[in-house]
Amino acid sequence: MRTPIVAGNWKMNLGRSQAQELASGLRETAGKEKGVEVILCPSYTLLHVVHDAVQGSSVALGAQNLFWEEKGAYTGEVSASMLLDSGCSHVIIGHSERRQYFGETDASVRRRLVSALEAGLIPIVCVGETLEEREEGSTELVIERQISGALERFKPEDAAKIIIAYEPVWAIGTGRTATPVMAQEVHRMIRNWMAKTFGDDVAEGVRILYGGSMKPGSAAELMAQPDIDGGLIGGASLKVDDFTAIIQAAR
Ligand code: PEP
Prior knowledge:
This protein is of the alpha/beta class. The protein has a domain of 175 residues: Aldolase class I (TIM Barrel, Alpha-Beta Barrel), CATH 3.20.20.70. 46% of the residues lie in helices and 14% in strands. It is built from twelve helices and eight strands. β7, α11 and β8 form a beta-alpha-beta unit. α1 packs parallel to α2 and α7 packs parallel to α9. Phosphoenolpyruvate binds next to β8.
């Protein structure tokens, strides 16, 4: 039995007081839910505020990215050990917005993954096809290329620590959600790839989240699919009521 995960990707949103209010509100609601792991991923500048607001509760803290070097002359970058020092347990890696706007590739995703795992952070690695790729029928090919580029040659015990998020690019922030059947198909394919590459035990244990305009109204049906183990939520994670409703649906 895999414990579901609901992670909130706040992206480049909120100031200190709004973050404090949202995190404290979620501590009261999400912090009381049993049987679901809840992770909040604010921007770097808000990590300390959110850390203080959720400290002592079951809500975990994650970042939205990291750089693979440990320290040094890398202006503007943040390392895995800095994230740990800020109280993070998780980190999102390879989000499509990073691939689209910041030149992230499967190879750079892999370097970030290695660095996260070495530091003891739990990575949430994102994969997903564009609308064009879906329409030309290459979804499977694209996802396989992304996950094998990022994960192949890992030891099974390391692969077992990774959380995967399937996020069709065309569904992110667009209000257009994949149907449960569509999402399940890709999740199944990812789990099959994990089984073929790392063995059945790793594949059975790995949590695969769906992301892409998941809202309270669509969450339950998506997460009822056998291979969907929770959600990575953007827009709806910025509202206490919506995010809490999604967590309750996961439970
Ligand atoms: C995301 O950015 O990971 C995401 C899923 O965003 P949204 O829920 O807003 O589509």
